[in-house]
Amino acid sequence: MQLQHGTDELLVDGTIVHSLTKTNRQAEAKRTWERLMTTIGSVKEKPAAAIDRARAAKFQTYNPLIYVIKKQVVDGRRRKEPQFTPAAMTTFGELGPGCVVVQEWLAMRYKAHLTRAGDRADGRKAAQLTGKFRADFRMALLMVAARRAASVQQGAGLPSCCVRGDVLDVPPASA
Question: What is the pTM assigned to this prediction?
Fold first, then answer.
């Protein structure tokens, strides 16, 4: 996804990961143990291991593209280098650092817009509306994760054509 406001540009690739898949279970157990056994804040605040793994995979995928963009800036074909962030979250609703980057990027531009617009007829301040936006954005991300998890559960055990929605349109039998 490409978000653009004036000369600022944010490139985002979103993903939802399940922490308890076979490939993530051991790393999640280790991360949970680290979180429980430490008193160091930076260790307690680390995202889920599945989020770190998904972010690393996205950075590896997009590094060649980022290199091309940097070259375009050097060559003068772009004015400014865009910011890139993978926005990963778990099916349990844990938001990765990329989700916060996207939230703050949008919130700051919304706040700037509200500030430029001046006083509102309803008397609400820019800080109040920006805070509500942040809360609504986080809730929207959590609802996306919940909907996706529900669709995965609903499609469990069905043939892939039923889950992906590419079932042929068969006319109903006539009476």
Answer: 0.77
